[in-house]
Please model this.
Amino acid sequence: MSSLKSEDISVEKRRLHVPPLEELAKVFNSELIKNFEEVKVEVTDSPDLSQKPFTLADKGLNGKTKLIEIGGVPYLIPLVNKDKVYDLKDVANLIDSNPAFVIGAGAGPYHYAGVNCEGIINISIKNGTVNQQTRISKVVDVDEHYLQEKLPDSETRISLLGNFFASEGKSGKVVKVHAKKRTGSQNFIECLRNAIEKEYGEKLVGVGGTFLIANGKAKQHVMRDFSKTELVTDEDVNNWLKFYEMSAPLVAVGTFVSNDGGDLDLRVQHFHSFSHHGDAGHYHYDVTPHEVEYLGYFNTAEEIYRLDKPVETHKVGRD
Model:
């Protein structure tokens, strides 16, 4: 299956409101302390994220930071549009990024996997040279076990939808978030996203990065193969998805925004995680609140690129 040509992909670009990191840290803290027993949020120099435990495809989250939203859930449900295939090397050119360190959550390349799959996107593209650390997760047998697989450098495509943070992979200042022992009802990313929604309202703020679930377990889903019957409600979608409890350590990558951008029709939060022990999927929330420990590094995006926005849209299946 060939990917869409660049000239066939619509591109909308918008500048984002970029609060100072020190301010953002205080905003994050304001919501986290309502939901976690131990919280520390600070602005710090990023560690080398290419090293353990994160093992990302490049070192940092700085340099010409951008959010990218490609396609959308309407290309997956109520029924799949299999023509929606994108090559991240082409995407890097469309957003004028070289080098392009891209991380985030999307649908993996079904044409490579043989079935629909989750994509935990983690790739560095420099002058056409690819360092591919992306994993996919797919349901593989009648007993509905899942399998994580690392993509080869030669496979740079995704399908249908994606929410990504792009940078030059440089080291620099980031917001470090450490939270332990969840006491409230909001999950880790809900806290951070709800905090910026409350603080910035209609100002569009975009954040991307990575977090580690260092202890505990998380509820995550892996998409089954494409549904042959229409999925028209969130209940339909949840019955189609396959949910699992997955164990730490898990490394999650993704994005969140303060609002849906109005006519940009953005997905407000989206994170997928991978591991080195086989677990991988779409993050929902932790299921061991007394044990859970999160460690995250985040940066603001300066602009957002909305690529191939669906003309006909809906709000189903965006959890």
Remarks:
- The helical segments are 21-32, 88-94, 110-113, 188-200, 234-240.
- The chain has a mean pLDDT of 97.
- DSSP finds five helices and 19 strands in the chain.
- The two ends are 28 Å apart (CA to CA).
